[in-house]
């Protein structure tokens, strides 16, 4: 059977459309680029170029996985974040554009204040820790924690490939449980995009997220606030005499998070919205008595 690039693209698009994948044509093209190692321009200009049956088979195999709602990023194994290319697999949450708001706020804080030591709780792919090192030369050290050693493997790989591995210390720990006491009073900024979906809501998420992304990276407990409570309460001894706590939040969690930060003694609570006007980030300032 003779198959051209154009025919493969048509077949891929059609199958995805039949399965109601929203951006069927875009996903079919991206998978073609990834599997055939061609560029979009080559596909468009040299659509008549024949491809071997093995490549076609592999392409349609991946199309089929996408049709079953496997996220495209778990097939291509990459996601762009803050203009950098991160490698991902199904052991880590796919970095979201929303999280760029969190990182941008952290960069702003680092530019305005003497912040040289950062801790990233639940680093996942490492997108936050790596971006901060990439964009902020002033940051001497980021301690990146995750409970999953498989996630840490991905984060380490990203740090190495983006040339910041000498400034990040990766530690497997359930929040601060396995953290050495030498990290007490050592941090200026604690940042986290913790799991924040209420458990009962997970079943309503898109199949791509619900079935394929790590449950552990999504599940925020009964009210979605488990990690905000645990982190805000237990991270205080890690700050030097003062420090900042910066969280990504769900669009309807600002009030609750603000209240619990105040209850834990944080001050100057600030909320930051995303481009759609939704609350996305909360910042608190901590000063030891
Ligand atoms: N820090 C990672 C990210 O923002 C992982 C977050 C998570 O797993 N909840 O993508």
Could you describe the 3D structure shown?
By secondary structure, the chain is of the alpha/beta class. It has 2 domains: 3-68; 82-287, 3-Layer(aba) Sandwich (Rossmann fold), CATH 3.40.50. The protein has helices at 5-18, 24-36, 40-45, 53-67, 72-76, 98-112, 127-135, 149-161, 207-212, 215-218, 226-234, 254-263, and strands at 3-4, 50-51, 78-81, 84-87, 117-121, 141-146, 168-172, 187-192, 239-248, 267-273, 279-287. The strands form 3 sheets. Strands 7-6-5-8-9-11-10 form a 7-stranded mixed sheet, sandwiched between helices. Helix 1 packs across helix 2 (24-36), helix 2 (24-36) packs antiparallel against helix 4 (53-67) and helix 6 runs parallel beside helix 7 (127-135). The protein is elongated. The structure holds glutamine. Glutamine (GLN) binds at residues 93, 95, 99, 122-125, 127-128, 193-195, 217.
